[in-house]
Amino acid sequence: MGSFKNTIIIIFLLSTCGLGSPIRSITAYQNCDQKWHKELLNGDPEKTLCQNGSLVSCIAMIMQTSAKIINNRAVNPAILNKYLTNNNGYKQGSEINFSVLDNVGLHLVRTVSDLKTAIEYYNKNYYIVLNINYGKNYGVLIGYNEKDAIYIINNPINPQENKIQAKDIAVALIFKPL
Ligand SMILES: *[C@@H]1O[C@H](CO)[C@@H](O)[C@H](O)[C@H]1NC(C)=O
Ligand SMILES: *[C@@H]1O[C@H](CO)[C@@H](O)[C@H](O)[C@H]1NC(C)=O
């Protein structure tokens, strides 16, 4: 009900300002979903998907939405984490080695710090992951209102917090399905 209300508010905001983009339909996952919250990133007992898996969840959202599969299964955060763990997809410190994603059909094109460039890619149908609050959270861009500099995301940590201001965005990762 809450998110329905938010959706209405967003649509209202966008239609009154006239400069917003339509909301793009992208699968929403939460890293603390009961189904996978305890899974370990790269087998590290101090890093669970719930605590540290928001980037993995964002990438899983993009892969599911673009119909990529891993071992014949639709991608979710658990399946992606297992794949990365078993295929050297993590560097030291459980950072994702993005080039390993190429093997499962997703390419990191570049990382940009200016949002104008990120929006240009978004409008060409690339997928954008925003690094929010200096890596404390990540979200997948699903819409924006340029006039008010509001960016709307699928937030894997707190789905209700779906409107982000430019000042809270550190960098944008641009992805392209292969
Ligand atoms: C992992 O999560 C913990 C608890 O939320 C946090 O303190 C820590 O900074 C995170 N580490 C990384 C590398 O994201
Ligand atoms: C990342 O993955 C690529 C492709 O598998 C590999 O060549 C490279 O050595 C990896 N980098 C690190 C730092 O693990």
Structure, explained:
It contains five helices and eight strands, in the order αααββαβαβββββ. The N and C termini lie far apart (36 Å). About 4% of the residues have low confidence. The structure holds 2-acetamido-2-deoxy-beta-D-glucopyranose (2 copies). The site of one 2-acetamido-2-deoxy-beta-D-glucopyranose has 3 residues, from helix 2.
Please outline what is shown here.
This is Peptidase C39-like domain-containing protein. The chain is of the alpha+beta class.
Question: How many H/I helical runs?
Answer: 5
Strand order of the largest sheet: 3-8-4-5-6-7
State the oligomer. Answer: single chain
Radius of gyration in whole Å, from Cα? Answer: 16 Å
What helical percentage do the residues reach? Answer: 25-40%
Give the averaged pLDDT, no decimals.
Answer: 90
Bound small-molecule species:
2-acetamido-2-deoxy-beta-D-glucopyranose
Task: Point out poorly predicted stretches.
Answer: 11-18
CA-based shape: globular
Do you know the CATH topology? Answer: Cathepsin B, Chain A
Total number of beta strands: 8
Q: Specify the CATH class.
A: Alpha Beta
Topology as H/E string?
A: HHHEEHEHEEEEE
Please indicate the percent range of residues in DSSP E strands (runs of 2 or more). Answer: 15-25%
Q: What is the CATH architecture term? A: Alpha-Beta Complex
Could you give the distance between the termini? 36 Å
Largest sheet: 6 strands, antiparallel
CATH superfamily: Cysteine proteinases
Number of structural domains: 1
Category by helix and strand content: alpha+beta
